[in-house]
Amino acid sequence: MVWLKPLLPLLLFVCFVHGGLVDDIVNAIVKAVDCGSCHALLVPLQGLAHLGDSAFSNTFIALCKHLKVQDPDVCEGIVKQQGPLLAHDLRSISPFGQTATKLCDSIFGLCQPPAINKYTVPFPKPAPKNPKVFTSQGRAPFQVAHFSDVHIDREYAPGSEANCTKPICCRNYAGSTSPPKMPARPMGERNCDTTTSLAQSMLRAISTNNTFSIFTGDVVEASLDNSIRLVDGLQRFNEEMSTILGAPVYPTVGNHEAAPVNAFPRSTASKPNAAQWIYDIQSQGWAKWINTAGASQVAHYSGSYSAVHPGTNLRIISINTVYWYKANFWLYDSDKQQPDPNGILAFTVKELQMAEDAGQRAWIVAHMPPGRQDTLQDQSNYFDQIVQRYKNTIAGQFYGHSHQDQFAIAYSNYARRSAETAVSVGWIGPALTPRDSNPAFRVYDVDPDTYEIMDSRVFRTTWELYYSARATYGPLVGVQPSEALGPAFWHRVTEAFARNDTAFQQYNAFLSSGFGVKACNAACKTLTICGLRALRAQDNCQVSKPGLNFRKRGEEEEEGGEHVAHGGGGRIDDCEGGGLGSIFSQLPQRLSKSPAEREKVRKVIEESLALSAAGL
Length: 616
Ligand SMILES: *[C@@H]1O[C@H](CO)[C@@H](O)[C@H](O)[C@H]1NC(C)=O
Ligand SMILES: *[C@@H]1O[C@H](CO)[C@@H](O)[C@H](O)[C@H]1NC(C)=O
Ligand SMILES: *[C@@H]1O[C@H](CO)[C@@H](O)[C@H](O)[C@H]1NC(C)=O
Hints:
- Belongs to the acid sphingomyelinase family.
- The chain is α/β, with parallel strands linked by helices and 616 residues long.
- The protein has helices at residues 8-31, 35-50, 53-66, 72-92, 98-108, 196-207, 227-245, 276-300, 344-357, 377-389, 469-477, 487-499, 501-510, 522-532, 573-576, 581-584, 587-590, 595-613; strands at residues 142-147, 212-215, 249-251, 305-308, 314-319, 361-366, 394-399, 406-411, 422-428, 440-446, 453-460, 464-468.
- It has 3 domains: 2-115 and 586-613, no CATH class; 142-156 and 194-539, Metallo-dependent phosphatases (Purple Acid Phosphatase, chain A, domain 2), CATH 3.60.21.10; 162-192, no CATH class.
- 39% of the residues lie in helices and 11% in strands.
- The strands form 2 sheets. The chain has a 6-stranded mixed β-sheet.
- It starts with 7 loop residues before the first helix and ends with a helix.
């Protein structure tokens, strides 16, 4: 290459000094097939990170482009934003420690999660001997709407290409010249995020009939966004919820609320306050619904807060579960295992104890359900201890993140999962974004004395009723008229799924609200039911697999659905949104083992190091 000529001396220098390192990197990537070889790969990657952030990022931008993992501009965008964080992680940990194992699980799917680090969550008081009994008086239920994962794309451009090669389509990308093969329609498209008009239409549909709403997070598509657009996106949606809905909303923080996506540093990090601006914006935007005290908590407890809904005995506890999320690469910046990053567990305990002391019922509201494969097992286990301790106070848990219409059950004894040992239900709401499913939201009928859910109705697409959980599943499990749709009910539903494949396949179609329903064979069904019976991640029957964690949704078809649970599992890419893992996890498979190709890759890395050394 002619333009490299002036760099030739530098290139020779780089070959001389770093030649061994470049060899080591290429060899280690090729050999990365299991947990041990993944640890070994981290050694030369750490060496690369020590050459500096730009050497590290430039190398992976070049590799991403050369191996065609993404479009060149996408390679550049993602790695530039997020590469420095991974380089920082690698410089801060031992390649052979437990954090490295967790990183190898998260980013490459090459390690299984390590055994749970035993930790006993401290409680201010033991569980009461005679817990308060909440009894239904049979009064008329009130309505609560639950919507999630709105993923609004304010840059959605009608007429732009709706079938593109980027992580998100329907945008006017620089350099796209040819007329679109599939012009984006005004209201929305598959492969694209939510238009402003679709989001407003949903809010108007919800506004007609509800006491309050729950919004379980993910406002924008942040993967390629800068933070100025993110600020605007968060503020605009807060305003729209406020003006269109009228009634209060109890929101929570999603993994897409950070720029770069998923990057929420812990309080112990080198940049502990890098996400504070998000909490400050939401503290202001949510204050009208959660009062001064709640708003102050949002700013001081990393986005978490609690508020009693006026005129009720119900405390809503909204917590930020992004500190338990495997794709948050700030969680791998130290070898020290922290049981409770940013005190989210302690906050939850404090608020639940207050509810118990006051004789209130509580709802947990959060973005990421704690039972999926993308949750760190330690924190999921500790959170489960809290659920066990306060099971009498918690009347429901509400999540989003999966983009699927789901539920998951917690048990007092996971070795004996039954209707008798079922203690709590996670209601995992469908997404608004049309990317993976038909847009949908739920309306719950809530008993005003117990705050338990009597029915859950899903509305989809043009906001017509899709189905009622009580009407659909009740007859299969013999539900009594006064019985709430509680943990025992949902366990019986999973038993009905196991024996009645028609009922299970109907649930399988509900997952995506009827869009692009994927076949789920016997093995897939077993795994899916296991996922429904696991609000604790260590029990979801999932196994980490190379390159699988970050595969795009839909690619699982290649496996014939055999080893893949539908909905229950939660591979990281489901929700990770164009993060670094979507590039890194592909490298070992893409790097051909032929000597000629390896030589080419060697050259690519050497050139990128020479450019970095030249400060380019
Ligand atoms: C999108 O484009 C790809 C490649 O050009 C093509 O194979 C596919 O059928 C298109 N999808 C739709 C929905 O048109
Ligand atoms: C609206 O609320 C009433 C009671 O307040 C309830 O009976 C009715 O089912 C609700 N309708 C919808 C569509 O949620
Ligand atoms: C199986 O489930 C289907 C769909 O819900 C239902 O119509 C049917 O009656 C069920 N069969 C039995 C034997 O319960």
